[in-house]
């Protein structure tokens, strides 16, 4: 369990983490999402005692990091891949970590096997590819067999096999009853990996919900209608507008209609005698729900694209 209590961090005038309160529960993967600069890394650093809160608290199993007796045995983290001695072999790096943290040396073999690095344990960590570096970082996080794990962007730069491997690892760690807190920019990935989501923007909590709740609360369903004839499309759009129904033309002859269901649009098309080639309900993906939620708190975003007029 990780507990954030009104966690706040200011750098000079700027509040980068702003009164965050939530609990990251064991037995689940919790995705930590937010646009660039939202404060995700700063939050994780405070959980690990690498940054100090201006006010509030970040607790691991009820205690601040500084009060944990055997920190690496209680919380493991991958913050920045390759934050290690480049001349040391992977095995020696882990051995040094084990020795300085009172962790049994046999754990080194276990975690090397768990991340698939047994065969390259004797190679210099500095010669590792990005993917191997990530695996070594994850091995370090697992070394103390901790109940709480935090991963900051663990799939950054990984190939599809590596991404799938990280996903399965996160899921299996959660299935063992551990707390798994993972930040990512890849919404589609979080949709496959996470049970719950904590979303922040400009340091503030925007959402704290299960994936399904998050999509249901933050996105509206739309009806997608395809009409092969321009005149038919205009007739339907005019009638929807007259009925004060919101819609947009996305491409060619496709309309996205909001706030009504397929029955409504189908009946209207029938009344008008227009021909349809498609009529479907579309539920927003996590990506769309996330973009809608964070639209107001993107610090460095590009302006959104122009809509095609109907
Ligand atoms: N040591 C520091 N001094 C001043 N400002 C800082 C410091 N560390 C972080 N910041 C600022 O705090 C804000 C939050 O940064 P943070 O790295 O926590 O965001 P993030 O959500 O992890 O972003 P990203 O997704 O881009 O990694 C940013 O505006 C950043 O410039």
From TrEMBL:
Limits of the ABC transporter domain: 2-227
Claim: Nucleotide-binding is one of the keywords in the record: yes
PROSITE patterns with a match to the protein in the record: ABC_TRANSPORTER_2 (PS50893)
Keyword terms of this UniProt record: ATP-binding, Nucleotide-binding, Transport
Listed Pfam families: ABC_tran
InterPro entries reported for this sequence: AAA+_ATPase, ABC_transporter-like_ATP-bd, P-loop_NTPase
UniProt GO MF annotations: ATP binding; ATP hydrolysis activity
Family annotation (PANTHER family): ABC TRANSPORTER, ATP-BINDING PROTEIN
Protein family (similarity comment): Belongs to the ABC transporter superfamily.
Protein name in the entry: ABC-2 type transport system ATP-binding protein
